[in-house]
Each structure stands twice: as C-alpha cells, then as structure tokens.
Specification:
Helix content: 55-70%
Largest sheet: 5 strands, parallel
Radius of gyration: 35 Å
Strand order of the largest sheet: 8-9-10-7-11
Strand content: 5-15%
Number of strands: 14
Length: about 1000
C-alpha cells in the first residue's frame, strides 16, 4: 500500500537506506527534524511541504512537476520551479547527503526508523498480528505505543493539496487505531474506564457512528442500560438533523440487542479475535504427598465432579468436625479431577469457623480478578458481582473449591450456575438447605486408615515393632487425621521416643476437655502433646500470640506482644512453624489454624502466670499499633497536634523515613489493627483503642478498608458508655461522625459531632471539641446551612488557634472558604483557602495541603479564574492519587468537571465526571454520586446528547428523592424541558 493512499504493512514498503541514523523526522504532529537531541530548522511552510512530499514517498524519486503539484496544486506561481530548487538546496544543507538529486527530481534517503510514521506503521502491523493471534493485551500495548507517537494534528500548518490529503488520511487512520484499541478495551473488561474516553471522543467526532456504538456497548456493560439507549436516541436525532439519514444497521442492531438485554453483549464477542481474553486460574493448594485412605470418598466425589462435563453443574458438599480431613480430601479429589476442568480451578478459604467469615462479595472480587476481570470492571454490589461471575464462567469448565464454609447462604453467590463447571464445598455443618447438592458426611478414619497414615509419617520400622501401641495412639487421637498428623510428626521428630512413650502421654483422659464434641477433644489432646514438648520460651510465645485477634500477625507486632527483640521473636515463631503449631502466611507474617488458636488461648488462660501477663501482652500490642499509627499520622500531617494528645504508650513503634512506606504499613496492617481496636474495648485499654482508631482515620477514606473501619467505629461509643469514660466516648463519636460524613449520611454525622462537642466540654478535651465544631461546619456545607456552618467553623478556628494547632486551623479555614463560596463571597473564599494553603505548605503538609488546593480550586472556579483553578485541582488530584485517597481523588475529578463546565468544555467535563463515577464506586455515598450524575448530565447536554443527559438526571433525582435532599429541585428544573416536550 502506498503512503499516498493509506498506511502500509511494513514489508510492502519500498526498502529504505540508512545513510544517517542520527536524523529523525516527525510528521505525526508539527513537522520536525532532529539530529540527535538538536532540532534542525525545517524552513518556510512551502519548504516543509516539499520535505513532507519527499518523506512520504518511501525513498522514491519525486519529479519537479510532482513536487510543484504537491506544494501549490493547479495554480503554481510563475517561479515555482526555481522555488523548488531553492527549497531543495536549503534542505540539502541541513540534511547533508540524505537529500539526493536524480533523474530530474529529488529523493530523501533515510533510515527505516528515522520517520515516526514508519515506526507507527510497523507497530500497527505487529498489533494487527497480535490481534489475529488472540493476544489482545499485547495488541493493546502496541496500539498505545502507536497512539503515543501522535503529537497533535499530523502535518500541522503544512500548506498544499498533497499535505492536506495526507493529513486527512492520517487523522482517519489515527481514529481507526483508537477505535481498535477501545474495542480491545471492551473485550478485556475495561468498559468502565472506556466510558470516560468515549464520551469525550463522541463529543469531538459527533457524526462518527462507530464511536457511538462503542460508547453504547461500554455503558451497557457498565450496568447503565438506560444511558446506552439514550446515546442511540441522541445519535439518531443528530444524524437526522445534520445529514438526513438513519443510523447505520450495526448501530440499530445494537440498540435492539440492548432493549432485549441480550446476554451475549455482557461478554466479549468472538468476532474481533479467535480466542477470548480469559485467565486460566490454577489456585488449588498442594495436595499432601502422604494422602491415605478415603478410597470410597475419592471415588464417589470424583464421579460427581465428572458429571459436570454433561448438562448439569455438579455441587458436592463435605461436612464433618474440625480436623477430620475435609480440606485434605477435597484438595486431593480436586487435583485428580483437574483434567475435567481445563479452564482452571478456583480456591478460597471462607473462614467459616472464625468470628468474621469471608464476605461473598469480597470473594467474588478475588475470583473475578483471578479470571482476568479488570478492577474497574468489577461491580460494587453482591448481586452484580455474582451475575458477572456467572457470565464469566458461562461456557467454560472451571472447578471451584469453597473451603471452610460457614453455611449455605455464604456460598450460594459463589456457585458457578452453569453446566461444565463444578463446586466442591467443605464445611463443619451439613448443608441440607443447599438445593441440588451431593452431600457427603466425612467421619473419622477407620482404624486401618488411621494406622496407615501414622505409619507413613513415622516410618514402618518404628511402627512395625509396636503395632499395638500405635493403635493406642491413633485411638487416643480419636482417629482424626489432623490429630494423627500432629502426633506422628512430633514422634518422627524425636528419635529417642518410642511409640509406647507417645501412647502413654495420650492415655491420660484428664487431659481431655469434655466441653466440645468428641472429635475436638481428640484434637486438643494432640495439641497438648505438641505444646508439652515446647521449650519454655516457645510455649510462652505460643500462648501469648494466640490471644490477639485478627487474621494474622506481623513479626514486628509479635515482637511487641512478646516484649522481645525482633531476631529472638523470629527464631521462636519459626520454631513454632516447624512444629506445625503456627503457619507462615507470608514472609514476616504468621497465623494460627483456627483450632490451634482456640487451644493457644485455653493454654494462656490455664498456664500464663501471673494472669496479668495476658493483659500486658495485649496491651503491648495495642501500644505498638498506636505508636506506629501515630508516626504514620504525623508523617502525613506534619505539625498536627493530635499526636501530642494521644494516650502515652510504652512501646516506641516502628519508624519510617518515607511516607509511602508508612502508608504501606497502615494499609497492610488494617485488618489486624482494627481487630486490635475492637478487642481493646475494656476499661484499661479503651482510651488507647479509641485513639488508635482516630490516628488511623485514613483507612476510613481509602475505600479498601472503609467497611471494616466503620464496623469498629460503630462499636466503640457503646463500649465507652459502658466504661463511663466521657473522653473516650467523645473521641469515638468523632471517628464515627467522620465515617458517616464520608458515606454521605449527614444527619447521623451531625448528631455524632454534636454529642462529641458536648462531651468534649464535660471531659475537658478541647481537641475533640475543635474537630467536632469543624465536622459540624463541613456537614452544614453539604446541608446548605451556611449560617450554621459559618458559626461552627469560626468557633473551630478560634479553638484551634487557642490550642496552637495550625493544621487544624488550616482545615477549618478551607472549610470556611467553602461556606463563603456558597454565600456568594467569592473573594473572601479565595483568600481563606489561600491562607489554608500557606499554613500547610509552611509545615510540609502535602496530603492536607491537597485538601486546601481542592477548596481553592472550587473558589477560583466560581471567580472565573479557570486556568488557575485547573492548576490547583490537578495538583490536589496528583497528591490524592499518590496517597491512595480514593474519596478525594473522585471528588477532585468531580470539581474538575465543574470547572470544565464553567469554561464551556463539555467534552472534558463529561470525561472527568465519568472518571469520578468510576473512582467513587463503593465509597462516598449516594448523595455524592447524585452530584456527579447531575454534572455529567449537564456536560452531556452541552454535547447535544440530551437523551443520555436525561437518564443521568433521572438517576440523580431518584437518589435525591430517596435521601430527601434539596438538590432534587435543581434536577427537576433540568428535566422540566424534556417533560414539557
């Protein structure tokens, strides 16, 4: 294909010679010539036109008449030939030997990689091959490389008919590449991200139907069916008005499929590539090498799983007491059945025996990611995730192993639901209410199987000479596989013991507890055997570490619990791992099996002397978390006085030199830290627990941990009341008020802040009072109570100043700026926000300085200083993203959309609003979502997409009406013209 008619596949182009590899030419934007890092002059516009005509001929000679036609067309000047020779002479001086004269014309001899267009064509050809091979991720990356070569309009400001034709061709090619990449985005599940870009593109190219088609599909796959249909209505109206035609058949067909809710639209079509994008998970844990017995169960379950190849989904549920070997059997059977499930195997421990079992929506998120779904494409609600999960598995053969389930309700959303797939479930309860499941009750091993397992671990020689003693051992273990495995491992590790010694140790019935089921008694007796062989320091570590709640514990936290140096703590923990009483969850992190944790706590209650040492261990853990969280807080908020008003700790905590390391620690420890807060609600530890919750408030705004943080925050005020501690109650109410504020529950947030303010006066805790007044001022902003908000914030400013709390003062000043803005006092709003920025910048307060820039950006937008407003808001956006503050990232995108609307940039406004919706999924509450939808609708209206705008406004109105928010009045006014029509 000749460049004069369209982009070519590289091997179809004429060969190029490389005489000067240092020369580089750019035509995908302004025409530029570079030699290394030096930019060379390209001359007058007509000289650049001659250069372009030579560059795009692939080294072929262009005659003088061809060049004259290229530069001037049908009306060349009288001295055109002389001008061409002059331009060529000047270029030859700049380009040395690259420009040659031959056959009465000129040719440009350059290297293949010297022209950006040639590089782009080669990359595009590679992308085409990758797409044809089904390698969509690679194709997408290659196309993005091509698009990154563009630097604005191709051949910008180059005159002449030839350049104009080539410019039109290159612009069209660029759009085709962009459409191809967006099509791939939809195929690999990036539809939520694509909506923002497509919204802007359809605004720039309103008559390009392929972009409208992609936008409809992206919206539909994002669960926004009404908006997708509105895009079609807008397109049909526009085409009729502008061109007098109907939409093309493909667009009309897509509309009909959306109306029918065609299930095929919810997953990638197979038309664009021969192989769908699908990640094949292989998550099964390793099977044990000494698996023993259970032959009938293996056969039965294997047969059930094999039926999944037919027309039904196979579901088998194993039930039995703890330690009976459910997981071991299930994993063994799953490995044997892998050949029936070539599309992969999923596995999850549902933690059903713990106090906080895994939430189905969380598990579905993990499964969807494992299956290749992008984070941005994962819905927020349980029902939506379950539906997408079933759609993703449809037509595939995947085995799902759901281990340690709590009940049928927990696992129902996790079942594939389609033929070809199978689910294997383990639980301590029989799932009689799980329709269609093949139920298997797993009992203890037979004596023969138990002895076989014991022999495999201990060794045939030792057991063979003491068979009766070995039978006594497995009987004392209750024939439970877990108990047998632990006992046998202990014996195998002690060559001086005989089997009879082990049997005698297990024979003492007084060591067996009778509160639990018989199976559990045997397991605890076995744990007692292992525990009894620990060195004193190991036994102490085993007891004390088991006291802490949470899914696992870090080495540093364990060091605090044990009050030992890190290296000694690590030696003890690794020894416990070696004895199977502790598990290594990850490098530097440890966890107990749930039964072992219960046993460890029982040992602590029985053996830890004096008993106060148990409280002291947990107190040290609390001190460690509080001291370290305070350091993280101080790094994020230099000069903030909160750290000076926290309860003192006896542990120094960790130190950080980098704020990102501090953030990483906080988010990594979120689960165990919040569990420590909840566990520390007694009178002696309550104040430190509440302070820890306050110091880790970033978890409430991160999105990832907001739900868990809210649950703990909601429990602490009642704990404080039970202890009669007014200071702790006030501080706990401040954290709870912040939770409600983040979630958009403003009435609840105000009530909590009001109570906190009253309690701060009773308890003599001015810091709580300062923040309570600040919270009430912020809430008043959202509830349009400007006079109340001004009063609260002026009080907060005065109190912060009295306490010499400059960061607090800055926060209240920025919030007061928003009050003044709402009251029409724009100049003072700008001044107040700038005052807040000055305070934060003096103190090196990057994160909260971003909040101040957010406030200033809003004020500058209202004052018409849009360039400055965008600069401040983008500064804030970069910091919020770097700090992983999803709430504020989303809200800053929303404010940028507002600024874009004010500046009459509806396309950019729509793009930013779409990104805000994506970022705020699952955080910020419905009220904020309604605000973003309102602005998105205004932007779409500015683009002429009135149908889609009305869909956004109707959704926003539904939110406002449900919340009783006054913003519904504005939205009704926006919808009124449509209703009248």
């Amino acid at each position: 294909m000749d460049r004069d008619s369209g982009p070519r596949v590289p091997n179809q182009r004429a060969p190029l010679q490389s005489d000067d590899a240092e020369l580089h030419f750019s035509v995908l934007g302004p025409v530029r010539v570079r030699r290394g890092a030096q930019t060379l002059p390209s001359g007058s516009p007509q000289q650049r036109a001659l250069l372009v005509a030579l560059l795009l001929r692939d080294g072929r000679t262009a005659t003088a008449s061809e060049l004259i036609d290229a530069i001037w067309g049908e009306e060349p000047p009288s001295q055109a030939l002389a001008a061409v020779r002059t331009y060529a002479s000047r270029l030859r001086k700049a380009l040395n030997d690259s420009l040659v004269s031959e056959s009465g014309g000129y040719a440009l001899r350059i290297g293949r990689d010297a022209l950006d267009l040639a590089v782009a064509e080669e990359l595009a050809a590679e992308a085409h091959k990758a797409t044809a091979a089904g390698e969509r991720a690679q194709a997408r990356a290659l196309i993005n490389k091509v698009l990154n070569l563009w630097d604005g309009e191709p051949l910008a400001n180059v005159p002449g008919p030839y350049a104009e034709n080539q410019r039109t061709r290159l612009v069209e090619w660029g759009l085709q590449l962009l459409e191809t990449r967006l099509d791939i985005d939809l195929e690999i599940g990036r539809h939520a991200e694509a909506v923002s870009e497509l919204t802007a593109l359809t605004a720039s190219h309103p008559l390009r139907e392929r972009l409208r088609e992609l936008l409809m599909l992206a919206l539909y796959r994002s669960g926004r069916q009404a908006e997708a249909l509105a895009v079609y209505a807008d397109t049909r109206r526009l085409l009729a008005d502008e061109l007098g035609v109907d939409p093309r058949p493909e667009l009309s067909s897509l509309q009909q499929r959306i109306l029918r809710a065609d299930a095929e639209l919810a997953r990638p079509s197979e038309e664009s590539a021969p192989a769908p994008q699908f990640t094949r998970p292989a998550q099964l844990p390793a099977t044990v090498p000494d698996f023993t017995g259970r032959a009938s169960f293996v056969t039965d379950l294997g047969s059930q799983l094999a039926t999944a190849e037919g027309s039904v989904m196979a579901v088998s549920a194993l039930a039995g007491i703890g330690g009976v070997g459910k997981t071991t059997l299930a994993v063994h059977v799953a490995h044997q059945a892998r050949k029936h499930f070539p599309d992969g195997q999923l596995y999850v421990d549902l933690q059903g025996t713990g106090s906080r079992s895994a939430e189905p929506e969380t598990v579905l998120g993990v499964f969807l990611r494992a299956l290749g779904t992008a984070d941005s494409a994962i819905p927020a609600t349980l029902d939506e995730r379950a539906a997408l999960y079933r759609s993703t598995l449809d037509g595939r053969r995947v085995l799902v192993l759901l281990d340690n389930a709590r009940d049928a309700a927990q696992i129902r959303p996790l079942l594939p639901g389609t033929a070809g797939c199978a689910a294997l479930i383990t639980s301590r309860v029989r799932m009689l209410d799980l329709a269609g499941a093949h139920l298997v009750d797993l009992d203890v091993m037979s004596p023969e199987e138990a002895l076989q397992l014991f022999t495999r671990i201990v060794g045939a020689e030792r057991v063979g000479s003491e068979r009766e003693a070995a039978l006594d051992v497995v009987a004392a273990c209750g024939f439970l596989p877990l108990a047998i495995r632990i006992a046998a491992s202990r014996l195998a590790a002690r060559r001086t013991w005989t089997v009879s010694v082990l049997a005698a140790k297990l024979a003492d019935e007084r060591r067996r507890l009778d509160e639990l089921q018989a199976g559990d008694l045997a397991v605890k007796a076995t744990f007692e055997l292992g525990y009894g062989q620990l060195e004193p320091a190991q036994a102490r570590a085993f007891r004390l570490l088991g006291l802490a709640d949470g899914p696992d514990i870090s080495l540093a936290a364990a060091s605090a619990v044990l009050d030992l140096p890190l290296h000694e703590t690590e030696d003890l923990l690794e020894a416990l791992v070696d004895t199977s009483l502790l598990e290594s969850a990850a490098p530097g992190r440890y966890r107990y099996h749930d039964l072992v944790r219960l046993y460890a706590r029982a040992c602590a209650e029985r053996d830890e002397q004096p008993p106060a040492e148990r409280e002291a261990a947990l107190s040290r853990l609390l001190d460690f978390y509080l001291a370290t969280a305070a350091r993280v807080y101080a790094m994020e908020r230099p000069g903030d006085r909160l750290v000076e008003h926290l309860e003192p700790t006896g542990t120094a905590g960790l130190r950080f030199t980098d704020r990102h390391d501090a953030q990483d620690w906080l988010y990594a420890e979120a689960g165990t830290l919040l569990a420590c807060v909840r566990q520390s609600s007694g009178p002696k530890t309550l104040r430190r627990a509440v302070d820890l919750l306050w110091a880790s408030l970033d978890l409430a705004e991160s999105g990832a941990n907001s739900k868990q943080y809210e649950g703990v925050a909601a429990a602490m005020p009642e704990a404080a009341r039970a202890c009669g501690d007014t200071r702790a109650e006030g501080r706990s109410l401040i954290t709870l008020s912040n939770v409600h504020l983040v979630a958009g529950r403003f009435d609840l947030a105000d009530d909590e802040a009001r109570q906190a303010l009253e309690l701060s006066r009773t308890a003599g805790d001015p810091l709580t009072g300062c923040w309570a007044s600040n919270h009430r001022g912020v809430i008043a902003i959202y509830q349009n109570r400007q006079a109340d908000g001004e009063r609260h914030l002026e009080r907060a400013i005065a109190d912060f100043r009295a306490g010499e709390n400059a960061p607090g003062e800055a926060a209240a000043l920025c919030n007061l700026s928003r009050i003044h803005l709402a009251m029409g006092r724009t100049d003072s709003a700008v001044a107040l926000a700038q005052e807040g920025i000055d305070i934060y910048d003096r103190m090196g307060h990057a994160l909260r300085g971003a909040n101040a820039r957010y406030a200033l950006g809003m004020a500058l937008t209202r004052s018409g200083q849009l360039t400055e407003a965008n600069a401040r808001l983008h500064e804030a956006l970069d910091i919020f993203r770097d700090s992983r503050q999803r709430l504020w990232e989303g809200m800053t995108l929303f404010r940028l959309a507002e600024a874009d609307l004010t500046g009459r940039r509806p396309a950019q406004a729509a793009s930013n609003a779409e990104m805000a919706l994506t970022v705020l999924r699952g955080i910020g509450g419905e009220w904020r979502r309604g605000n973003v939808l309102t602005v998105l609708g205004k932007a779409l209206r500015g683009l002429g997409q009135t149908g889609r705008a009305e869909v956004c406004w109707r959704e926003a109105l539904g939110i406002y009406d449900e919340l009783g928010s006054p913003e519904g009045t504005e939205v009704r006014a926006l919808l009124a013209p449509a209703a009248a029509a």
